[in-house]
Predict the 3D structure of the following.
Amino acid sequence: MTFNSGPIELSLEIAAERTGDIAPQVYQKLFARHPELEALFVRDTTGAIKGEMLARTIEALLDFIGPRAYARHMVQTEAVTHEGYGVPREVFPAFFTAIADSIRDVLGDDWTEDMKLSWQAMLAEIAFFAAHTDQKIEAATAAP
Ligand code: HEM
């Protein structure tokens, strides 16, 4: 792990306390940056699919910064699965960036330099695994 997980955990806790649901901010940021992606959710008439995807992604994020029991592989497999949905491989990590930026906005002045640097390093590692989906690749080679 090339980052300190404590500041990320703390930022997620504070955000969860302040806003019950960050889904609106996250998808608003994602679609503002990649308008073409919104049409991919055509089946999501109630928002349940987007809500579920965000919930599973945050769960995976907590595993990735913690025990890393499955999240690395999930990022690798979902990056491939999502190409089937029409999500270009290089765009896939943008969902994590939209989450990070939404947390930053919710925290406002409570967003620390430590949080910023830890999130940045974590996002770089996730982008590495989204780009390198060979499950045999070792974490040690992830550091840019
Ligand atoms: C720009 C990024 C992403 C886009 C545009 C996107 C889009 C989608 C779409 C269109 C679906 C299918 C919805 C349907 O059933 O009609 C989906 C499903 C899903 N997405 Fe994403 N996704 C993104 C990133 C992620 C990430 C980062 C993760 C977690 C690592 C993730 C996890 C899932 C899961 C678990 C499902 C449910 C079905 C499955 O397992 O494939 N997605 N996503």
Observations:
- The domain at 5-141 is CATH 1.10.490.10 (Globin-like).
- The mean pLDDT is 93.
- The chain has one domain: 5-141.
- Residues 30, 37, 40-41, 43, 49, 53, 56-57, 60, 74-75, 78, 81-82, 85, 87, 91-92, 94-96 surround protoporphyrin IX containing FE (CB under 6 Å).
